[in-house]
Each structure stands twice: as C-alpha cells, then as structure tokens.
Amino acid sequence: MTVSREVEAEIQRLSHAEGWPPGTIAKELSVHHEVVERVLDGEHGAPTERPPRASALDPYKALILQTLEEHPRLRAKRLYHMIRKRGFEGSSRTVRRYVARVRPKARVEAYLVCERLPGEQGQIDWGKVGMLAVPGGVRVLWVFLMTLAYSRYRYAELVLDLGVETLRRSLHRAVLFFGGTPREWLFDNTKAVVIERFGDAKRLQRDLLDFAAAMHVMPRLCRPRTPTDKGGVERGIRDLKEAHFAARTIVSIERGNQELLEFIEEVVCERRHPTRPTRTVREVWEDERTRLLPLPAHIPCTDLITPVSVDKTASVRLATNRYSVPSRYAGGTLTLVADDAVVRILDGDVEVARHARSLGRHQRIDDLEHRRELLEERRAANAAPVRSHLLLEIPELHVIFERWVERGRNVGAMTARTRKLRDLYGSDLLRQAVLEMCAGDLHDVGALALLCEQARRRANLPVPLALSLPPHVVDVDVISHDLASYDRKKGGTP
C-alpha cells in the first residue's frame, strides 16, 4: 500500500513531534501499521524485504509442480494426500494456498466468429422442456428448434420423441413455415441423424438422407462435443427454456405449439439482432427469406409406412399401442400408414381401418364395429360344443339351425336359448316341439318355447321351474316322505 507525500509527512510529525506510537498513528490515519513503519524507516513506500521463512512444504514443492505440469486440473486435496504418504505433516490449507498460486492457468480457447450468408444454413437441435400427462402415464416433452443462422429467425414445435420419423415431419413443417429452406441443415450427432461415426467418416440415417435429397439440402454434422458449431440454436434452446417454458405447464401439444409460435412472433422477432443491433430479427429475416431455396414441386411423404402383423385379437401394433382391424384379418399381414394424428391400416390399396393416433402408452384403440364382429365370432365358436351335444340328443335340430343361418340369425344366441329349453322341459318334450317346427316351416325360438309348453300340457306334466341357486347352496335331490307316518305317530288311523 502506498500513501501520498502529505500522509507521510503527517506520520513523521505525529511520531517525532507528538510521540505517538506506530499503532496509534495507523489507527487514527486509517492506514496499515506496516505503512507507518515503512515511512518511519525512511523507505517512502518501498516494501520491506523479509527473508523467506522455511516451510514444511518446501521439500514437496518440486513434486507438486511436476504433477500439475502433467495434470493441470488435479485437485489440491489429491495432491495433499500424495505428499502425506511421502511424509508431509503440514495442513491441507497450506497445500491449497500453494496450489492456487502455482497452478497453470487454463488456456482460453479463442473462437472465430463466422457470419453465415443469407439462406445458407439452418441449425437444428432439441431440448427437454417438461412432462406431458397422457393415457397410461406421462411422457417426456421435447422442443424441436430450427434457427436460421443469418437472421436468427426460428421455427419451434413440441414433440414426444427424437426418432427419425418425428424428425422428418418436424423438418417438413419447418420448411413450410419458412416458405423455403436453407441450403444446409446442421445437426448434432444424435441417433435420429447419424447411425455411426468414426472421426470424419460418418453414416447418416437413410430416411433423413432421402428427405434431404428431395429437398435439395445438404445435411451436415457438428464436430463431436463442440456445441459452438451451432451456437445460434444452442442459445435459442436456452432462451426458450428460460423465457418461455419456465414455470409453464403444458396441457396439450396443440395448445403448447400455438403458445410457442406466438412467443416467437411477438417476442423473439422484435428483439435486436445480435450482430446488427440497428435492426430487429424480423427485419433481417425479411432480407433472408428471399434467399432461401424454393420448395420442390413435390415434397416427399413423411408418413410412417410399414408392414404389420395382425395378432389373434385382430389388432396391429404401433409403438406400444394396439389398433383394431376387422376380425377377418387376424393372423394376416397388412400395411400401416401413420402421421402425427391418424393411423390407417391398408390391405393393398384398400383402407380397412382408421384410428386417431394415441399419444398414450400401452393403450388399446378399438373400433366398436371391429369388436362387435369379433364378439359374434367368439359367441359362435363358444356355442359350437353346445350345438354338437344338442344335435347328438336331437338330430332333427339341424334343420332349425340351417333355417337360422339362412335368415341371418345369431346362431350362438339361438343355441343358448335352445339349451335352456332342453334343461327346462327335457329332451323328449323338446324333440316333439322341434318336429312340429320342422313340419310347420317355423324358425323362431319363441315358437319353439311355445310348442314345448303345449307338449308339456298334453303330457299332463307339472309346470317346470327354473331356479338359480346361489353358489353356497348345495343342489341335492329331496326324497318325498310318506305323510301317513305322521298320523300313526299321533295314534290315529292310517
């Protein structure tokens, strides 16, 4: 610490004229006591050289310096343990102070600011922005972002996965939003883009390459672990998270996308351009939009098209969800065509089923007509054993069955009602009724029940009772008792 010549003079005066000790002078003049001592010694601001004191760390300093030379980021705590094993008995604080003083300074990497030309490059990235409640649980919610490197104009949308199918649709909507496309798409080394990479050698996803080729665009990859290659979109993702998605709950993708585009148009586009501060992002974008590549006359389809197998429940699988098809296709192979909203199932060129695409997980999406067909078939299948037993008992029933089939009746339901009549009236009365139906060209099961009742009356048989007992009641035969025994017990005449 140095002081003015006036302060030095005052220190000399107070010491020699007034006899103040150095501590009092330092306190009253608000200076350090070493300054006072230095002035009184006549050195006028030059620091007092003190002989260096011996330190317990001295024998180990060479080892510390050598280790830091080879491992500049090694923590002082680790160095302390190293020299402790070699006999150092000092404190870890001593080591930390010395390491902080001698540690090699990290080299600051210099970046070259590369200004892109209008319409030259679009930078693509994703960022996790929350969770979305869906049927069956919750799913991770991502934001897809394409930023034009020249104007910083953006297109963004919410997506539920980072697959190549979703990427193609996002790119499709992005270029439609811009009304054209930059000549180059710059991606991170994500699985939706690159299959494998070894140094400069890389293999991109075939579906992405086909789509980019149709759009006359060159897809490029950043250098691994070098986010500065696409700093514009990296900053854009961070900006969306902090300025838009923070403390925001997304209840639906449709509403979330609407709010996202409103934020871009009303907030982002009105900001000052980072390299052209006299102009807004929107103004620079107006210059760039005329330099984009025009869209081709035919934009390739981005729908998912894949063959699917139909399982035993007459359903096909997409992701973790199952979609119904007509039961006649069970066990076969169909073609599934899906976009974000609709799932279509085709038999050749014929559409056999259409469903709204589910955002949930492990859901079953049924068409009521498909389920009704399958239910009717199952009922008929379940009725087959019963029908076989009835035909063994009453062979004449096959005529009635044929009449039901010819008239489009529910054979399963008719069989179940016929079995109930057999259980109620017995096989003999039922056979008589069946013969009368065959002779009268009748087919309604209600007529069969009426004929059974008439046959019972002709035979003067008791009225049948259909009782349904609860499971805990044992169904046993009751043996009738001779009531005359009661008279004998009372002493009466039998």
Q: State the oligomer.
A: single chain
Low-pLDDT stretches: 44-48
SSE-based structural type? alpha+beta
Give the terminus-to-terminus CA distance. Answer: 141 Å
CATH superfamily annotation of the largest domain: Ribonuclease H-like superfamily/Ribonuclease H
Tell me the strand percentage band: 15-25%
The number of distinct β-strands equals 14
Largest sheet: 5 strands, mixed
Q: What is the helical fraction, as a range of percent? A: 40-55%
Give a quick rundown of the structure.
This protein is of the alpha+beta class and 494 residues long. Helices cover 41% and strands 17% of the residues.
Topology:
Layout: H1 5-16, H2 22-29, H3 33-40, H4 61-70, H5 76-84, H6 92-102, E1 121-134, E2 137-148, E3 154-159, H7 164-178, E4 184-187, E5 194-198, E6 201-204, H8 206-214, E7 218-221, H9 231-245, H10 253-266, H11 281-288, E8 304-309, E9 315-318, E10 321-324, E11 333-338, E12 342-347, E13 350-356, E14 364-365, H12 368-393, H13 397-406, H14 411-425, H15 427-439, H16 445-458, H17 484-489
Parallel strand pairs: 1-4, 4-7, 10-14
Antiparallel strand pairs: 1-2, 2-3, 5-6, 8-11, 9-10, 11-12, 12-13
